[in-house]
Amino acid sequence: MNMRVTLLRLHWFLSAQCGIDLIKMLRSIRGVPRYIRDLIRIKKAYTGRLELVPCLFDWYEEGGATRNEYFWQDLIVAKKIFAANPEKHIDIGSRVDGFVAHVASFREIEIFDIRSITTKIPGVTFKQADLMNPKEGIVDYCDSISCLHALEHFGLGRYGDPLDLQGYEHGIRNMARILRSGGVFYLSVPVGVERIEFNAQRVFNPKTIIESAEKNQLMLREFALFTHEDGLVEMGLTSEILDRVGSKRYGLGIFTLIKK
Predict the structure, then answer these.
(1) What is the 8-class DSSP label of residue 132?
(2) Rounded to an integer, what distance in angstroms lies between the CA atom of residue 146 and that of residue 259?
(3) pLDDT > 90: what percent of the chain?
């Protein structure tokens, strides 16, 4: 593992798991002189009540977070669902404050998640379920399914699920059972050199996902890859291209699958 990857992982751990964002901290320190200068000017010009609520790092950030994989997967897959206009769409474990909100803005959506969601959201129906071990009878339930940046966590215990090294395979099998024949399955997972990053996630060789899907009558129709270097790119479906993706350190693969 090179130094850049090590530093990025350390930053992720400190910010996401410990609540210590060193980048924001340094940007805030950088903003202190400007804040003091602006405060002096405001005090000279304003005679009303003044309370201090410093916002120090916003000067050094873009107007929105558009460079991460979640932004692009949520946008692209939501557009695909809008165009397809399925009869019934089910989501499994995707971000509620991202992808689910996108879809709920233009249609009804039902979500399954192993964790509870207590907030009532217009246009969203919630069912708590473990897709590694679903209840009997959930078969041919819908004609459209999404599972974005979630399958890689199945069976690693991060979200209260039981440890199961075949968790992702059970998940694909059970989601395929829910989907009707001819239905569409939108799936995104980290792809690259295959490994477990315990207990955060799996990274899959894309062929692993395709082979597991084919065992469950799911055929690959489209494949896109997001990397921070190249952005979102629609990829070919040749074995050589998939091997090249599987040799990378990390990317986000977005698979569009059809149930036979």
Answers:
(1) T
(2) 13
(3) 83
Domains of the chain: 3-60 (no CATH), 69-259 (3.40.50.150)
Structure tokens at 121: 């959201």
Q: What are phi and psi of 256, to 5 degrees?
A: -110, 115
What pLDDT does residue 33 have? Answer: 95
What is the Cα–Cα distance from 249 to 194, expressed in whole angstroms?
9
> Coil, strand or helix: which one is 1?
coil
Cα 217 to Cα 215: distance, rounded to the nearest angstrom: 6
- Give 245-258 pLDDT, tens digit per residue: 999 999 999 999 99
Q: Is 138 left (phi over 0), alpha (psi -120 to 50) or beta?
A: beta
Pairwise CA distance, residues 79 & 11, whole Å: 32
Q: What is the structure's pLDDT at 135?
A: 67
Distance from C-alpha of 152 to C-alpha of 27, rounded to nearest angstrom: 33
DSSP state of 163: P
Q: How many other CB atoms sit within 10 Å of the CB of residue 258?
A: 17
- Beta-bridged to residue 89, according to DSSP, are 144
Q: What is the pTM of this model?
A: 0.90
* pLDDT for position 61: 84
Q: What pLDDT was estimated at residue 136? A: 57
Q: What is the dihedral of CA 65, 227, 152, 21, to 10 degrees?
A: -40
Three-state secondary-structure class, residue 12: helix
User: Whole-angstrom Cα distance, residue 22 to residue 28?
Assistant: 10
Radius of gyration over alpha carbons of the chain, in Å?
Answer: 22
Give the span between the Cα atoms of 104 and 99, in whole angstroms. 9
